[in-house]
Structure formats: C-alpha cells, structure tokens
Amino acid sequence: VVWADVITVFREGQQKGWFRSDFKPELLLILAQKAAELVTDSKVVALYNKPQDLVLELTSLMTYGIVNHD
Q1: Cα 23 to the center of its chain, rounded Å
Q2: ∠47-48-49 over CA atoms, to 5°?
Q3: Is 51 within 8 Å of 42 (Cβ atoms)?
Q4: How far apart are CA 32 and CA 37, in angstroms?
Q5: pLDDT digits 0-9 by tens, 26-39
Q6: In whole angstroms, what is the distance from residue 61 CA to residue 3 CA?
C-alpha cells in the first residue's frame, strides 16, 4: 500500500462524513510510524504485560483519545 493511497482513502472518508473533516490524514500516518517505533522501545514495552497490550493501547488512543466515552 502506498501512503498516498491511504491518505486518499481517508480524504474520501472525510468527504462522506465517516471521519472528522478537521484532521489531517498525513498526521495520522506519521503517528502510526511513531507508534511502530514505540513498540520496539524496551522502556515503553516494559510498561505493559505484553507487547500486544501496548499495541491495543496505542490503537485505542489514536481512535478514541483519552476522554472517557462511557
């Protein structure tokens, strides 16, 4: 997958109302790349019982933020 294609899909989703129109898809891709760096950082991984828990936490943060949605 080419990053430009992913950005195009997000922009189409924004036009259709699936995603907020006020965020830049490019930033989301940069955050995903940085998240990949975090899962190889032993200090960060050590905060979790297993690496999968870190991945779930990062995914949740990127998807929902830190605000309680209950």
Answers
A1: 12
A2: 135
A3: no
A4: 9
A5: 998 898 889 889 99
A6: 21
Helix or strand holding residue 21 (H, E): none
Residue 32 to residue 41: CA distance in whole angstroms: 15
3-state secondary structure of 26: helix
Reported as a single tens digit per residue, the pLDDT across 12-26 is 999 999 989 998 999
| pTM for the full predicted model | 0.69
Contacts of 31 (CB under 8 A, 6+ apart): 62
**24 vs 14: CA distance, rounded Å:** 10
Distance CA 58, CA 52 (A): 10
